[in-house]
């Protein structure tokens, strides 16, 4: 393969610089003792201390993580079972219909998802707050889990199941000891995607969160609307560190499972 | 092949999933359509639809489309060469990973960064001053809105294009060059048509969200830009007019379906 020309290298460096500059800009000023994102006065960790001293913010952080983990877990269970169910459908038309319905929430604009869920919760009388946010996150994470698990199920050799059955395994055994272990890389990938969907979501949560409950995205939004606060910068520093760790973890799981899917979007 | 698994497992696994589809896919769409024909008192009406076809809303829809078009165009113009050059690098998966990482940082944080960057005393204005111009308000303009949106969407455009470029057989390019095609002709007649599916998925994941963004418009564009998404948020959470909000949402869904049809992949099984 030919080496990249100087021009091409310059272009790539430019793109990377633009992509990372805002993030490092945020993190850089999180250490600024002045109150703004313009003049760097001197190095300080006070804004990080402020994050950890603000008990309301800590509760919001914990809520965000709790919602992400719980919704990821529940969505992974529903999605994995759903994927197993889908591949077991004989009728091709029925199967394609289910797959199309599965993708509706993935392609839908999040404003529409948020608005429609708000109507739904109001109608069936779910109080807006932790429960409505959790349920919404489960709801929009299920389809991505299905999409991550399906390819693994489809590449699975059915003779494995036949063999297990011939050797006297019950249906339960087949599921627990043959199918699930085989598709576990897909399940983990799905769980990871569900986590990131949940952590990254703003619009849907914004619609269904009500007054008392808040997640990090919603809190950052209301803080940012009020103007610049270096506490947000400190949060960025923390979020960036955690994100890099998650990405590295995801990268290794992905590498092991050699899944083709990269990245997701919400 | 997978059909066989069915006989060996119960229908049980499908029950929670079907329940999920009914409650969170079908019911919400039905509710949006239902609310779109209700007035503020909950009576049947078509005035919301009539209102949507008044100049105010039509203009808003058109401008939303225009911005979404600009955002998609610039994202594509920057993303395609990036994806192309990435496939030529030595450790391309690693470089791709580095492109993906910023996309995993919370959207709100990235948007917030630009409040500082584009601010009156921010680094961009400092640079402008170095060149002898007066600092001006970049924030709260449609330029800043398009710029930040392009910034947000670039990774999502790069990924599918990178994947389709990566899958392409390089000998096709050598063949084209051997047969005397210029590099531009090779690109136009061989590379681009073969990666059109990646471009289409990229457009899909950019254009639809660009129509519906509302936090970037609020934080970055002030009230300069109103997208369909902003209008829906406004109707639902500020004006409390769920009927009108739902009507706009119905149209947003229609536009989404049209975009999907327009960017549908011809080859079978392009996406799972």
TrEMBL record, chain A:
TM region positions: 12-31, 57-89, 101-124, 130-154, 174-196, 234-253
Record membrane topology: Multi-pass membrane protein
InterPro entries membership: Bact_Polyamine_Transport, MetI-like, MetI-like_sf
Intracellular or extracellular location(s): Cell membrane
Organism: Solibacillus merdavium
CDD domains (UniProt xref): TM_PBP2
Protein name: ABC transporter permease
Chief localisation class: membrane
Gene3D superfamilies: MetI-like
Span of domain ABC transmembrane type-1: 61-251
Record bears the keyword Transport: yes
Keyword tags: Cell membrane, Membrane, Transmembrane, Transmembrane helix, Transport
PROSITE patterns: ABC_TM1
């Amino acid at each position: 393969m030919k080496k990249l020309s100087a021009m091409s290298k310059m272009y790539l460096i430019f793109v990377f610089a633009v992509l990372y500059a805002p993030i490092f800009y945020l993190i850089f000023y999180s250490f600024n003792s002045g109150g703004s994102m313009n003049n760097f006065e001197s190095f300080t960790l006070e804004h990080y201390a402020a994050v950890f001293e603000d008990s309301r913010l800590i509760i919001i952080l914990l809520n965000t993580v709790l919602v992400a983990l719980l919704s990821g877990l529940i969505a992974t269970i529903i999605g994995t079972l759903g994927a197993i169910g889908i591949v077991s459908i004989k009728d091709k038309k029925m199967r394609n219909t289910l797959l199309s319905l599965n993708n509706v929430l993935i392609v839908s604009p999040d404003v529409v998802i948020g608005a429609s869920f708000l109507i739904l919760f109001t109608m069936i009388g779910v109080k807006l707050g932790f429960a409505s946010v959790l349920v919404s996150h489960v709801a929009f994470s299920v389809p991505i889990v299905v999409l991550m698990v399906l390819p693994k199920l489809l590449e699975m050799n059915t003779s494995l199941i036949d063999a297990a059955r011939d050797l006297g395994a019950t249906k339960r055994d087949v599921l627990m000891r043959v199918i699930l272990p085989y598709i576990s890389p897909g399940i983990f990938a799905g769980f990871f995607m569900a986590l990131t969907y949940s952590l990254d979501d703003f619009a849907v949560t914004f619609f269904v969160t009500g007054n008392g409950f808040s997640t990090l995205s919603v809190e950052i939004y209301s803080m940012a609307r009020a103007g610049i606060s270096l506490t947000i910068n400190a949060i960025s520093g923390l979020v960036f560190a955690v994100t890099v760790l998650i990405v590295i973890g995801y990268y290794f799981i992905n590498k092991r499972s050699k899944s083709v899917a990269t990245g997701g979007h919400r | 092949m997978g059909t066989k698994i069915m006989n060996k497992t119960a229908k049980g696994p499908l029950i929670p999933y079907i329940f999920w589809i009914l409650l969170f896919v079908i019911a919400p769409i039905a509710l949006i359509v239902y609310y779109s024909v209700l007035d503020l008192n909950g009576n049947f009406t078509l005035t919301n639809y009539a209102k949507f076809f008044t100049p105010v809303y039509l203009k808003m829809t058109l401008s939303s489309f225009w911005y979404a078009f600009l955002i998609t165009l610039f994202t594509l113009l920057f993303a395609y060469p990036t994806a192309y050059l990435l496939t030529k690098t030595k450790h391309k998966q690693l470089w791709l990973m580095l492109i993906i990482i910023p996309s995993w940082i919370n959207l709100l944080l990235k948007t917030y960064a630009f409040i500082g960057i584009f601010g009156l005393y921010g680094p961009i204005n400092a640079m402008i001053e170095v060149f002898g111009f007066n600092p001006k308000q970049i924030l709260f303009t449609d330029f800043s809105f398009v710029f930040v949106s392009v910034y947000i969407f670039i990774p999502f455009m790069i990924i599918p294009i990178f994947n389709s470029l990566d899958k392409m057989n390089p000998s096709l390019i050598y063949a084209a060059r051997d047969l005397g095609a210029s590099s531009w002709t090779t690109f136009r007649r061989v590379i681009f048509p073969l990666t059109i599916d990646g471009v289409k998925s990229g457009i899909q994941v950019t254009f639809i969200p660009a129509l519906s963004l509302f936090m970037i418009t609020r934080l970055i564009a002030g009230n300069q830009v109103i997208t369909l998404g902003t209008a829906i948020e406004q109707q639902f959470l500020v004006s409390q007019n769920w009927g009108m909000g739902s009507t706009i949402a119905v149209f947003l869904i229609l536009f989404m379906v049209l975009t999907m049809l327009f960017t549908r992949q011809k080859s079978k099984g392009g996406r799972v």
